[in-house]
Write a structure and sequence with these properties.
The chain has 27 helices and seven strands. By secondary structure, the chain is mainly alpha-helical. The strands form two sheets. The protein has a five-stranded parallel β-sheet, with helices on both faces. Strands 6-7 form a two-stranded antiparallel sheet. It is globular, with a radius of gyration of 28 Å. The model has no long low-confidence stretch (mean pLDDT 88).
Length: 632
């Protein structure tokens, strides 16, 4: 193999072409609906560059060192990443509520250990409006690349030991990952979006280009004229995908092959001096491309703080985000010249020093993130400050939890067999997580139309269930159930409820279908409703001077729209299935036509004590709400 070109300005221009659509997409600019695909372009570029570096060094006998490789990655990635994380941590307390601060702490920890892609898989759907308030959401792609960098050099070393079969190895990675992307996108699109196993083929596409470019005579295999025609067409295709594709397409999947393939062809066929080369090597594009890492890192926290500060999840923040782009540019420029380049190319720190400092920085970030999580976003301390200013919280969490524990002791054990034997006795079984606990406490205390029992069944526990027999024998989530089978078979009505998430709601639907087919009982599925944490919202209300009579409308705006959208997906399935019924928990709190949610009762006392769970004051009204539906 011949040595690669030492520097390609057109690749930096391609970086600019990738990062600008991402930023404009996050700013909400019309006409950039496919801007998120810029990340896929970055994956291909990264695969190309890393593979070129590693194989070039491996094939120069004895020159490749894993320690040297990881040192270079640390110098390249960590300085700006740590700076961006610190910037986020400094600004966040002035903009976010304590529950949001806690979320930031969790994401800082996940980012520090390069696992944020899987953290956000569990927490946030990238394409829902609530995602715009997650300052570190964009680090998922860095986690994917770091996971690739961790294992890929080892695989290439293994391929070298087997005779240098790099192409066969990379083709295998490409094929397996692409197949995994198709399958996972169909079964769990959120997991597919965030995962290394469904994104590896995009990096492998760049790796295949690197293998081809290192072959002697590769650039002479196609004429300059044909190369210009193909690469210009690829530029047009990329711009088309950025402006015309949208999040409704299955991604990563068949449509993702288009921007990935166009990027691979651009890297492979762009020839020095050609039209495409001159376009991509334009000084403005190269200048932007050189800053692309910083631009990508710094824009998202600032944009997310705009969404959080202005309390709006739609287009209303667009003008503020667009006006911040020059600020993002200046921060990125300063980061490049004052931080990234000096630490990347500086000789003051030897390899051991770089690895030690990097480890300390990562551990420090992880520690700060863990501290924010453990201290619950310092909610208690912040709340105490506001109370001293004469601004008490809307809810006293400790008092409310104590009241719930007190009433819990007065009701029957939730999973003992039904005791009534009369024909007129209606038996209702409640299945689910803490939502079912709410249902049971309200109905057991204040219900008048049935006998109620409850079995704990978290939504994650519903996933492996394929039959009634499997459900009856399930012990992981039901260790204290005396006779789950008899409760299921004796029940006249079964209500399934949970804090539905995008990767678990189908399991809830599947459970409902199993029960419907196996039992004579009426099967009801309950939707979930979630809001911002009420005590944290108190702080936001005082900061923003929100009047008491404006709270209902503000509560409506502060719903967890991502969870509501997931609940609506489940609702559509349930309501399209004969003999399944649906209860909207959201309807207890919210009037969607009036766009208000009542989380405080007529006396101003709280109906929830966190972001979802009922207070004892809400139990009587909630029981009447549920039995009103059950009696229909």
């Amino acid at each position: 193999m011949r040595p690669p070109l030492s520097y390609r300005p057109d690749v930096d221009g391609l970086r600019a072409l990738a990062v600008v659509p991402v930023i404009l997409y996050h700013a909400g600019l019309p006409g950039t609906s496919g801007g998120f695909l810029g990340v896929d372009v970055f994956f291909v570029i990264s695969g190309y560059l890393i593979t070129t570096i590693i194989i070039s060094e491996i094939d120069q006998k004895g020159s490749f060192s894993l320690a040297n490789f990881y040192e270079r990655r640390a110098r390249r990635i960590l300085p700006a990443l740590v700076a961006m994380s610190l910037m986020t941590l400094i600004i966040a307390p002035f903009v976010l509520t304590p529950d949001q601060l806690k979320d930031v702490g969790q994401s800082v920890f996940a980012t520090a250990v390069f696992a944020s892609n899987y953290f956000f898989y569990w927490e946030i759907d990238y394409f829902n409006p609530f995602a715009s308030q997650a300052p570190l959401l964009h680090t998922w792609s860095l986690a994917v690349e770091e996971q690739f960098y961790l294992f890929f050099p080892l695989l290439l070393l293994g391929a070298k030991a087997l005779g240098g079969r790099y192409t066969a190895l990379i083709l295998l990675i490409f094929a397996l990952s692409l197949a995994a992307a198709f399958w996972t996108t169909a079964s769990d699109p959120l997991l597919s979006f965030y995962s290394i196993h469904t994104r590896g083929w995009e990096l492998a596409a760049g790796s295949l280009v690197a293998i081809w470019k290192m072959r002697p005579g590769a650039d002479d295999m196609i004429s300059a004229r044909v190369a210009d025609i193909v690469t210009l067409a690829c530029l047009v295709v990329l711009v088309f995908t950025f402006t015309s594709f949208n999040e409704d397409l299955a991604h990563p999947g068949l449509f993702t092959v288009i921007p990935v393939g166009a990027t691979a062809l651009l890297i492979a066929l762009t020839q020095p001096g050609g039209i495409t080369w001159r376009i991509l090597s334009n000084k403005a594009l190269v200048h932007t491309g050189l800053m692309s890492y910083g631009l990508y890192l710094y824009h998202n926290p600032l944009f997310s703080f705009v969404d959080a500060y202005f309390d709006y999840l739609g287009d209303g923040t667009r003008i503020y985000k667009l006006s911040l782009i020059p600020v993002v540019y200046l921060i990125s420029l300063a980061s490049l010249h004052l931080l990234e380049r000096p630490l990347r190319h500086g000789k003051r720190l030897a390899r051991r020093g770089v690895l030690v400092v990097s480890s300390i920085a990562v551990l420090a970030l992880a520690g700060v993130g863990a501290g924010l999580h453990v201290n619950n976003g310092f909610k208690t301390q912040i709340a105490a400050y506001y109370e001293r200013q004469g601004m008490p919280l809307l809810v006293n969490v400790q008092n409310e939890r104590a009241k719930i524990e007190a009433v819990r002791k007065t009701v029957a054990k939730p999973n003992t067999p039904f005791s009534c034997t009369e024909d007129s006795c209606h038996k209702t079984l409640l299945l689910g997580d803490s939502m079912a606990i709410d249902n049971y406490l309200a109905l057991a205390l204040h219900g008048k139309k049935a006998e109620y029992r409850r079995v704990f069944l978290d939504d994650t526990c519903m996933e492996p269930i394929n039959s009634l027999e499997e459900l009856e024998s399930l012990t992981e989530c039901n260790r204290r159930v005396i006779s789950f089978g008899s409760l299921l078979r004796d029940a006249d009505t079964i209500i399934i409820s949970a804090k539905w998430q995008d990767h678990t709601y189908l399991a809830g639907y599947n459970l409902a279908m199993i029960l419907q087919e196996a039992l004579d009982a009426e099967i009801i599925v309950m939707g979930s409703a979630m809001f911002t944490d009420l005590s944290s919202f108190s702080i936001k209300a005082w900061r923003s001077n929100i009047a008491r009579d404006q709270l209902d409308g503000t509560f409506y705006d502060y719903q967890r729209w991502d969870r509501l959208r997931t609940s609506d997906k489940l609702k559509d399935r349930v309501q399209s299935t004969p003999d399944l019924s649906w209860i909207s928990r959201n309807a207890f709190f919210c009037d969607n036509e009036a766009q208000v949610c009542r989380l405080l009762d007529d006396e101003g006392d709280p109906m929830i004590w966190d972001n979802i769970h009922l207070t004892t004051r809400a139990f009587p009204k909630y029981a009447a709400f549920l039995e009103g539906f059950l009696s229909q």
